Request: fold
Amino acid sequence: LPDNPAILYTVVDHVPPSRWKEFVRRLGLSDHDLERIELEHRRLRDAQYEMLRLWKLQMGHAATVEHISCVLNQMELSGCSDAVQEALLNQNSPQTCSLHNHL
Reply:
């Protein structure tokens, strides 16, 4: 995953809040990590962002959109998986276009 907060927020926005903890547990975060982050970040959205950021730090190069999609599909949230991938493609496309214009 690129080092871009907008990408993490895109994932936060597309995973149903009622399934969020299951999602990050399946990604590999421990209950201890979840509780610590919830204590440090009172607002749900901030906590969700930090959980994803921690996962990304722990996983390094293995933290990919494909991995997120795979977990969402295992949770039978393929609609969320599609929405995340589509949103990320849309996010990346203006940057790609501007790069090509400079070549």
The chain has one domain: 5-102. Confidence is low (pLDDT under 50) at residues 95-103. The domain at 5-102 is CATH 1.10.533.10 (Death Domain, Fas).
